[in-house]
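Sample intake sheet
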Amino acid sequence: MQRLVGLVRRCVDDYNMISPGEKIAVGVSGGKDSLALLVLLAALREYHPTQFTLEAFTIDLGLEGMDFTPVAEFCEKLGVPYHQIKTEIAPVIFQHRKEKNPCALCSKMRRGALSNAIKEAGISKIALGHHYDDAVETFLLSLFYEGRISCFEPKTYLDRTEVTQIRPLLYLGEKSIENLAQKLHLPVVENTCPMDKNSKRQEVKNLVAELSERYPDLKSKIFGAMQRLPLPQWGVEEPTRRPLPDMDV
């Protein structure tokens, strides 16, 4: 736990993600990544000099079988106010529009609902649970399917919504997050989306896993290249850039 909180702090400080006294919304889908983000930020707020506060937000897509009651109870234990916003995003996509490639539209609608919810609460910055592996996979998705050298940014200001997105988990690998979720018994909500594990991202994830058996440092080289190139907003000043620990531990 101490090691992971330290990595979150490094990421927050390297990219100047949080300003003094800010209230940060945390997007909590119920998955292991967003719950790990919540618990690590809750631990970081206890000693980080910015003295930030947190509120958690869940966008309920309207999928059957997803109960967020354990998430609400977990937030109460952490002392984090919790908001569940009910929507009909899933029925619109799968039943009414019958989208053949629903993930992009779902992501767009979910982001819009989340931005509206936090703005109504008077918050202008949101932390999202994208981690190290997500960054590598997104880079490859853009390269393979769009022919672009691109990825989401560690810190992004959205002009249209006037919301800033931050991604404090970028220095944490997926296996570390899985281990944390198991050890802390985080209340992970099973994803009932029919596209779960059947997306292009899953194809890229499988490819990276296969290639990593032959090239063990593949992900670290891609991630390092993204910082050194750098992609927009990915550069880190040399004096603060230090080697990251093994992300697959």
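Comment: The chain has a mean pLDDT of 90. The two ends are 13 Å apart (CA to CA).
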